[in-house]
Automatic annotation (TrEMBL):
It comes from Papaver somniferum (Opium poppy). InterPro entries: Developmental_reg_ULTRAPETALA, SAND_dom, ULT1/2_SAND, ULT1/2_Znf. GO terms for cellular component: cytosol; nucleus. This is SAND domain-containing protein. Signal peptide: none annotated. It comes from the Eukaryota. Residues 20-123 form the SAND domain. One of its GO terms (molecular function) is DNA binding. It holds the Pfam family zf_ULT1.
Amino acid sequence: MGDSVEKECVSAASSMFSVEELNEISGSKRGLDYIEVTCGCTSHRYGDAVGRLRVFINGDLEISCECTSGCQEDKLTPAAFEKHSGRETARKWKSNVWVIKKGSKVPLFKTVLLKYYEQALKETNKSSLRSKKGRPCHRDEFVSCTECNKSRRFHLTSKEECRVHHDASVDANWKCSDLPFDNLSCEDDEERASRRVYRGCSRSQTCSGCTTCVCFGCDLCRFSDCNCQTCTDYTRNAKP
């Protein structure tokens, strides 16, 4: 049984990218169910932080950091690796995380390596649209800045947006400038209270919380690579 599963994994990995596509990328190798390549992120202050990027056929991306010989950071998302590297213009990991292709640093979005990530993202977005026709949707949420205490709105219509909100909600030092989708600073005005009551519930725009718009855990808003208690409990209890 084990040999059969292993053969299936090898077959899946071998079909992900062509030999020609991987030969152009430095440090590439095939694992059981993933492709691994050398990657990095550059900070003007700290220089290059190098790591190993694993691309899984289900769209997951994991980076093991090798910035120093003693670094223990493993299974980082590209966004977390970007932040760990000290990149000054963080929150743009598709542009800031790079691989070596034909001797030059090339951002991830210019390579084939995001193919399965983008496919998984599209499927998630389709599922999100279907949820509005019956399954619970995710209303907009707010997180307060730790420096100015202003509340900032987060839209939760895609996996990527849910992850940004999730990371912000568990970050004890989250600031306005960390919001990736808007160029916000603490100087920008907070939304009026009369506007904040509109949360995007499909039942009522001014809903204060109902079973339609409040989700207590699903594949869109819970993450298997997150170690927080909420995600861990969901992953442990989710049906296979």
